[in-house]
Amino acid sequence: GETYYVRADYQQAAVTFAEGYKKYPNSGKAPDNLLKLAMSLGELGKNQEACVALGQLRKEFPNAPANIQDRAVRERERFGC
User: Fewest C-beta atoms under 10 Å: which of 2, 32, 40, 75?
Assistant: First the structure.
């Protein structure tokens, strides 16, 4: 997903991050996958869907690492959640 994101292939990045989250919802990477899914969706102009993913992140992973939580706050502001 990261390689798609940095190459601005946000559609494929979103698909990859969503698959990673669905396949491994309890892994250590799950919060990061949700954050990056939201960021990819936002880049595609799908702000409502991005906000849903960010809400899911906050609900399911309230103890996510601080860097992920901080970035999620900034992304919520950026997407108008």
Answer: 2
